[in-house]
Design goal:
Blueprint lengths: L7 H14 L4 H9 L12 E6 L7 H9 L6 E7 L3 H13 L5 E3 L2 H5 L6 E4 L3 H13 L3 E4 L7 H14 L3 E3 L7 H11 L6 E7 L22 H5 L31 H12 L8 E8 L9 E9 L5 E5 L12 E5 L5 E5 L3 E6 L4 E4 L4 E3 L3 H4 L15 H11 L7 H20 L3 E4 L4 E2 L2 H5 L18
Parallel strand pairs: 1-2, 1-4, 2-3, 4-5, 5-6, 7-10
Antiparallel strand pairs: 7-13, 8-9, 8-16, 9-10, 11-12, 13-14, 14-15, 16-17
Length: 466
């Protein structure tokens, strides 16, 4: 009988073809398929979970909860939490459609007090991440926390410490580490395909300076607890553009593109350079920010230059400044047909070696100055990186087995530190020297920006409890 596509050979053939179409070389596809094994568990071994900051149907909170509920992901949600009743009510309704009976909570601490909940997903605004994560860890929960890990360097340092002390599984939502293209790019770089890396460019986009405000104050929508949403940040009048998704563009709650896309791409830069346990030693930046009242106050355009101890440069930019790398610039290279072509480099990461060779990667492609850099297999003794092909599945597997996740809290801390160093350089306008061991600047004013005072009664060292 001809089993056709139902056979293992047919399945592997289709899978390999799909990986090739996705831009991965055949040799790498074979490596991935050889190791392909869903270890996330099944319905017989489900992890009981709660979602904190469940958000709207289009939010990251919903996306990661939906991923955890996949048939083979092995999770059951019993609780959702949000300070916006509209989000809570809709989440309960949608969870029922997924055969999940959940209780809705307004206060995350009440959810965390439940003894039956083993793990939580955190998708609150950035200024809440540390408070919720620390409280969750101290109450014995495993944690999946969206990136950026925290609002400040002091906060991420504490989260990493508490995660280590409690021994609970922690995954930072830097999901590009679970993407085949980014892992391949980092493996190529770590194995010398471009020579000694002299420069990495992370191109993360900016925000339109014509759309930064000012914005009008408005009545607080029914169902939204605006005071609780603000939490440890200074109390201000409600402006719709401060809340929910738009919180990213206010330094009170986040760090703009530097901690949005920067938390993704600078994380990959660190991975590719093999610097997960350290960071740069110097940083300086320039950019443009709107100083008017009631406007987005993060830098809408910027260029930040980092230097590592061995002289390697990291340039993180929006691509709009005159002296910043042009996100639409093209680099010469040869296509698969051997003919010269030019590759458009927009949002993504560019690794450049001392001989001019380069590898570029983003969520749509991986390419190089010469296709052979990618197409020639790595040797058997090559450095190979942690393989995860699904970020949430990796978290659930590690929750069961106790092994480290692909992006644990200590790695997330170092990655978000790079982003916050850039923000501090932009806000001070200074060239700063950073000690990645002591985790301090050579500048007293900059050191004060490593942490922020919290509005009473919130205190981080007490785990976020009143």
């Amino acid at each position: 009988m001809n089993r056709g596509n139902l056979s293992r050979r047919g399945f592997l053939g289709r899978s390999l073809a799909a990986l090739t179409v996705a831009g991965l070389p055949a040799w790498y596809g074979r490596d991935l398929l050889a190791a392909a094994e869903d270890k996330a568990g099944d319905a017989k071994d489900r992890i009981v979970m709660g979602a904190i900051g469940i958000g709207s149907p289009q939010s990251r909170g919903r996306a990661i909860a939906h991923d955890a509920l996949g048939a083979k992901r092995g999770a059951t949600y019993v609780a959702v939490c949000d300070v916006d009743a509209r989000h809570r009510d809709k989440a309960v309704e949608d969870m029922k459609k997924n055969k999940q009976e959940v209780k809705a909570y307004h206060d995350f601490r009440e959810l965390l007090d439940r003894k039956d909940i083993e793990a939580v997903t955190i998708a609150t605004p950035d200024h809440w991440h540390a408070l919720v994560a620390v409280d969750a860890l101290r109450k014995g929960k495993h944690v999946y926390c969206e990136k950026p890990l925290t609002l400040t360097i002091a906060e991420s340092k504490l989260v990493a410490r508490v995660a280590k002390e409690t021994g609970k599984t922690f995954q930072v939502g830097s999901q590009q580490r679970s993407d085949d293209r980014f892992r391949l790019a980092c493996e190529l770089v770590r194995n010398g395909r471009v020579g000694k890396v002299v420069r990495v460019e992370t191109r993360i986009g900016g925000i339109d300076p014509k759309k930064t405000g000012p914005f009008a104050k408005a009545p607080v929508p029914e169902g939204l607890d605006w005071d609780f949403w603000q939490g440890p940040t200074p109390a201000v009048d409600y402006i719709p553009e401060r809340c929910h998704y738009e919180f990213r563009w206010w330094y009170e709650y986040s760090g703009g593109k530097m901690t949005d896309w920067g938390a993704h791409h600078n994380d990959i830069a660190q991975w590719g350079l093999g610097r997960d346990g350290t960071g740069p030693v110097a940083v300086e930046g320039a950019g443009v920010a709107d100083k008017r009242p009631d406007c987005y106050n993060v830098h809408s355009s910027f260029k930040v230059d980092y230097t590592y101890a061995d002289g390697t440069k990291l340039v993180c930019s929006d691509g709009q400044l005159a002296d910043a790398p042009d996100p639409k610039s093209s680099v010469a290279g040869k296509g698969r047909d051997g003919k010269e072509r030019r590759e458009e480099h927009g949002n993504g990461i560019l690794f450049v070696g001392d001989g001019g060779k380069w590898v570029f990667v983003n969520r749509g492609t991986i390419t190089a100055s010469d296709p052979k850099l990618i197409e020639e297999p790595l040797p058997k003794d090559a450095t190979r990186l942690y393989t995860s092909r699904n970020h949430m599945a990796n978290f659930l597997e590690c929750t069961r087995t106790g092994k480290p996740t692909i992006c644990p809290a200590d790695v997330g801390h170092r990655s978000v530190t790079v982003c916050h160093l850039g923000v501090i350089a932009l806000r001070t306008g200074k060239k700063l020297h950073w000690d990645p061991v002591k985790e301090q600047f050579d500048d007293a004013a900059a050191n004060k920006m490593l942490r922020r005072e919290m509005r009473a009664p919130w205190k981080l060292e007490e785990g976020g409890t009143k």
